[in-house]
Amino acid sequence: MADLSEVKAAARQAAFARRKAAKSVAVEAAALAHLTEWLAPFRGKVLSGYMAIRTELDPLPVMTAWEGPVCVPVIVGAGQPLVFHRWEAGCDMVAGPFGAGVPASAEPLVPDVLIVPLLAFNRSGGRLGYGGGFYDRTLEALRARRTARAVGLAFAAQEDSGLPLEPTDQPLDAVVTEEGVLRFG
After folding, report:
1. Residue 166: is its pLDDT beyond 80?
2. Predicted pLDDT of residue 185
3. Residue 29, φ and ψ in degrees, nearest 5
4. What 3-state class would DSSP assign to 30?
5. Topology of the domain covering 4-183
6. Which sequence spans correspond to the domains of the chain?
């Protein structure tokens, strides 16, 4: 019998393949339209987006159009929660871990709403990430101090009803795909 780390590794490999197959300009545009609608009640709040890597959906158009402060996650180190630095369109960026860009100038912000990348999700708000636990630690810390909302941005093909989860995995409040919004809780 495989241990949980092997099960998660296999789930990640399958999710990468599904995400790569689903990626298209039209599908991504539909998902971003639904994301914009879901975010509307939070206009003016601090929004965390991310710099897309690999075949992730790219939230940059939503971040650029946001009416309020925007930040992106910065990895401080293994086993630590993320920190967030102010981002503006055209700001100087440097390479961060995993190849994602981070602002060259470190102006910390605390997000109210987070757009979260993922490899797979389920209909209970479960999320499978890359395995570092960064978003799980971050969401736990943010939610302990204040209300923070997290929305996953994904292709519908990334849904996995058999998602391997652990007690430390933090649920999402919603997942947005090209098909619409799934709300949890």
Report:
1. yes
2. 67
3. -60, -40
4. helix
5. Rossmann fold (3.40.50)
6. 4-183
The SS3 call for residue 122 is coil
pTM: 0.94
49 SS3 class:
coil
- Of the candidates 18, 33, 3, 1, the residue with the CA atom closest to the CA atom of residue 121: 18
Tens digit of each residue's pLDDT (9 = 90 or more) over 80-135? 999 999 999 999 999 988 778 999 999 999 999 999 999 999 999 999 999 899 99
CA distance 47 to 141: 17
**Contact yes or no for 176/116 (Cβ under 8 A):** no
Which residue in this structure is represented by tokens 């098909």? Answer: 179
**Would you state the pLDDT for residue 120?**
97
Q: Phi/psi zone of residue 161: left (φ > 0), alpha (ψ -120 to 50 degrees), beta?
A: alpha
- Whole-number Å distance between alpha carbons of 27 and 148: 27
Q: Please state, in angstroms and rounded to a whole number, the distance separating the CA atoms of residues 58 and 53.
A: 8
pLDDT digits (tens, 9 = 90+) for 4-49: 889 999 999 999 999 999 999 999 999 999 999 999 999 999 999 9
Phi-psi region at 60: left, alpha or beta (left = phi > 0; alpha = psi -120 to 50): alpha
- How many beta carbons lie within 10 A of that of residue 170, not counting itself? 20
**Cα four-point dihedral sign 131, 108, 62, 112:** positive
